Amino acid sequence: MNGPGSRTERTVMAGATGAIEGPPPSEAAPLPEGPSRQGDRLRGQVVVLLPALNEEGAIGDVIDRIPREGLRSLGYDVAVWVVDGQSTDATMDIARGRGATTFTQTGAGKGNAMRQAFTRLLSRPGTTGRPENRFFVMLDADGTYPPEEIPHFVEALEAGGDVILGSRLRGSIADGAISGLNLAGNRLLSALASLLFRVPVTDVCTGMWGFREDALRRFGLVAKGFDLEADLFASACQRRARVREVPISYGCRVGEAKLVPLRTGVVIAWRLLARRFRRSRTDPRPTLPASKAMREETS
Ligand SMILES: Nc1nc2c(ncn2[C@@H]2O[C@H](COP(=O)(O)OP(=O)(O)OP(=O)(O)O)[C@@H](O)[C@H]2O)c(=O)[nH]1
Ligand SMILES: [Mg+2]
């Protein structure tokens, strides 16, 4: 559907090849040289999470566009995790070739994938050893969301936000990037979410989020598929997290969509209602227990 949004910075990651089983960079790899390693200037770590199912046409560019140098100059070590939905195309080869840690989910669905990845990540300390200094930024791997704008999420988290939503409605949307049906559905679902949780939100279906680690730990996520974002928003509100929105630019998709609009809209609405009115039945644990079957590789 699209070409990417504005590209203010492009940084090509080290092109290591050949995946090695082992712990993620946050534990194993030496920190990169640069401002983030100079004395007390290492302020924290940003973990970029990219859910991906057969995104070979977009994933390489998305990883390349992550502003690693810019984040390092702000004092952040950067780790990139591609959260794989058992892709059958070259997605994982491309990700490994760019030095990303790849994590393959069990089962199917974006919600399952991210809950498993959160569990794995939260079971380990970040590079600073201080949970308050580890930020997570999740964005779709289909080329629609702007990796260049990750620093805005970091700034919003630094400014005291716990959970940051990238709002396309407050930002800009490229021509043809969202169908009229999806846009109307998103507006409706955002109005429903605002009403149910009494927290104003303009784009509850956004695929670009930032989280402070301690906020993420308090979530009780249950989503299996594309109800993930509704589940994240409901969790944030119910845990009384400080929810903020930042405007983002949104571009057209590269490759095929995995989402079926009307059915997904119903699932999202159901998740919002279930989280609001069946609260006691939601899983109080942060995420699924880590399974030995999940595969993780560090390049
Ligand atoms: N790990 C994993 N990722 C998934 C799965 N399904 C979709 N994704 C990824 O989640 C992101 C969102 O999926 P999309 O198909 O783009 O859904 P969408 O952005 O809501 O829909 P479009 O606007 O049509 O692009 C993409 O990066 C997908 O590759 C899954 O089952 N597992
Ligand atoms: Mg998409």
What does the secondary structure layout of this molecule look like, with pairings?
Elements: E1 20-21, E2 44-52, H1 59-64, H2 68-73, E3 76-84, H3 91-97, E4 101-104, H4 110-122, E5 134-139, H5 150-158, E6 163-173, H6 180-197, E7 208-212, H7 213-218, H8 228-238, E8 243-250, H9 261-277, E9 295-298
Helix pairs in contact: 6-9, 8-9
The protein binds guanosine-5'-triphosphate and magnesium ion (MG).
Characterize the main sheet. 9 strands, mixed
Mean pLDDT: 84
CATH-derived architecture: Alpha-Beta Complex
State the strand order across the main sheet: 1-9-4-3-2-5-7-6-8
What is the straight-line distance between the termini? 31 Å
- Quaternary structure of the protein: single chain
Radius of gyration based on Cα positions: 18 Å
Q: Can you tell me the overall shape? A: globular
Please report the first level of CATH classification, the CATH class.
Alpha Beta
Class from secondary-structure proportions = alpha/beta
Strand content: 15-25%
Strand elements, count: 9
> Segments where pLDDT lies below 50 for 5+ residues?
1-39, 286-293
CATH superfamily: Spore Coat Polysaccharide Biosynthesis Protein SpsA, Chain A
Supply the number of structural domains.
1
SSE arrangement, N to C:
EEHHEHEHEHEHEHHEHE
Give helix % range.
25-40%
Total number of helical segments? Answer: 9
